[in-house]
Amino acid sequence: MPGFELFGEEEKKQVNDVLETGVLMRYGFDGMRNGQWKAKEFEKALTVRMQSKHVQMVSSGTAALTVALASAGIGAGDEVIMPTFTFVASFESILALGAVPILVDVDDTLTLNPAAVEKAITSRTKVVMPVHMCGSMADLKALKAICDTHNLLLLEDACQAIGGTFDGKPLGSYGDLGCFSFDFVKTITSGEGGAVITNNKKYYTNADHYSDHGHDHVGKDRGAEAHPFLGYNYRISELHAAVGIAQLGRLDTFLEKQEQYYNIIRKGLATVSEVTFRAVPDGGVENYSFISFFMPTQELAENAHKALGSAGVDACFYWFNNNWHYYKKWNHLTNKTSLGKLPKEVQEQLPDYSTSDFSLSDKWVSRNISCLIKLSWTAEEVEIRAQNMVKTLKSVLVNS
Ligand SMILES: *Cc1c(COP(=O)(O)O)cnc(C)c1O
C-alpha cells in the first residue's frame, strides 16, 4: 500500500482509451464512446475478483458506505453499530442518511468486539458495520451469528483490507454488503473512487439507481428514464474507473509483495519478547498492508513510536492520539458540530460520547503501533528496516 507508488504504462493506456473518445461520463453517449465502458468494465472485473454477484462503482469509499446503507433502506433514526477505531467516513455515511452512529469497543483485533456489539443492540439497531482496519478483519463469523440472531444487516467496510479473506471468502463478500475505497492512499487507487459489492439483487438495483439521481437505467434515452425513488449523484467518472481497472489488474502482485515485506518485519519483531501482535480471527488472512503490534504499556508505545520516527522508520502510526481515526478526537461528532441543523432523530438519539466508557478500546489502541508496508521498497530495504525496528524497540524497552 498505496497503489500510487507503482503507477505505470497500464494506467496511462487505460486513461488514454477514455481521452480518445472524450466520453468522461459512465452513462449514455453510446454513439460516441467507441465501445468504451470503463466503469462497467471495472464492475465486471471486481465481481469476478470478489466472487460477488453485483458491484456498483461510486465516487468514493464514503459514497460507497452511504449508498450501501441507503440501498438497504437505512434512514432517519435507524441505529448503525460501528467501531471506535475507524475512519470518520463511518459516521459520516451514517449521519448523511439521518441514521445514528452507535460507537462500540474494539479489542485486540483492532476491530469490533462481538460481545460489545451484542450489548449495544436495541430495538432501533438495523446494521452492524465492522471496519477491517489496517489490513486485517473483524471476527465475521461471530458478528454474522449476532446479526442472524437479531435480524440485522452485516455491512463490511473493507476499504483498508482489499484482498484479505475470511473463511476463504474475499473481505467485503462475507456480509450482506461490502464497501471498498480507491482513494489515493488505498492499496489500489483510482484517484478517487469506491465500490459496493453484494449478492442481493435488490440492494444492487437500489444502489445503481440511488447513486445516479434515482435513474432507473431502462432504455437508451437518459432523459426519458424514470426515477422510482429519490437519489443523489455518487457517480464515478470514466477517467477514474479507467485507472481503477489498471490497478485492480495489479492487486494480486501488490498483495504478494506486501505479504513478503510483512513477513520480513514480523520475523524481526518476533525476536522482541515484549512485543505482541494484533490478533487475527481464526479463518482470516490479512492483506498485509500494515503490520500492527502492541507494546506492554501505553508509555512504552508512545516512547517506541517517537523512537521509531527518530530512527528514520517512517510510516508508523500511533492511532491513540490520531485526529481522524480514533473516537477521542472526534469532538465534532461528540459535540454535534454541523453547519446546519441535524435531523431531530440524530439530535435526540446520539449517545453522549463525552461520557462513554471505551476502556476496552483504550486498553488495546493505547498500546498499538501500526506500520505501513510500502510497495516501493526493495526486499533489501525491508531487511534493514526490520533490523532498525528491532534495535529501536529493544533500546526503548531497556531504557524504560
Ligand atoms: C479510506 C476509508 C474510507 C473512505 O474512503 P474515501 O474513498 O476516502 O471516501 C472509509 N473507511 C475506511 C476504513 C477508510 O480507510
Principal-axis shape: globular
Using only C-alpha atoms, the radius of gyration works out to 21 Å
Question: What profile does the largest beta sheet have?
Answer: 7 strands, mixed
Distance between the termini: 33 Å
Q: CATH homologous superfamily of the largest domain, by name? A: Type I PLP-dependent aspartate aminotransferase-like (Major domain)
Total helical segments: 14
Relative helix content: 25-40%
Which second-level CATH architecture of the largest domain applies? 3-Layer(aba) Sandwich
Q: Classify the secondary structure makeup into a structural class.
A: alpha/beta
Structure description:
This protein folds into 2 domains: 3-250, Type I PLP-dependent aspartate aminotransferase-like (Major domain) (Aspartate Aminotransferase, domain 2); 252-398, Aspartate Aminotransferase, domain 1, CATH 3.90.1150. It is built from 14 helices and 14 strands. The mean pLDDT is 97. By secondary structure, it is of the alpha/beta class. The strands form 3 sheets. The protein has a 7-stranded mixed β-sheet with strand order 1-9-8-5-4-2-3, with helices on both faces. Strands 10-12-14-13 form a 4-stranded antiparallel β-sheet. It has a 3-stranded antiparallel β-sheet with strand order 7-6-11, with no helix packed on it. Helix 1 (9-21) runs antiparallel to helix 8 (238-248) and helix 10 (298-310) packs across helix 14. The chain is globular. Strand 4, helix 6 (140-150) and strand 5 (153-157) form a beta-alpha-beta unit. It starts with 8 loop residues before the first helix and ends with a helix. The chain has helices spanning 9-21, 38-49, 61-71, 89-96, 114-120, 140-150, 201-210, 238-248, 251-269, 298-310, 331-334, 344-349, 359-365, 379-398, and strands spanning 54-58, 79-83, 100-104, 125-128, 153-157, 165-166, 169-170, 177-181, 194-198, 276-277, 284-285, 290-294, 316-317, 368-372. The structure holds pyridoxal-5'-phosphate. Pyridoxal-5'-phosphate binds at residues 60-62, 86-87, 89, 131, 157, 159-160, 181, 183, 194.
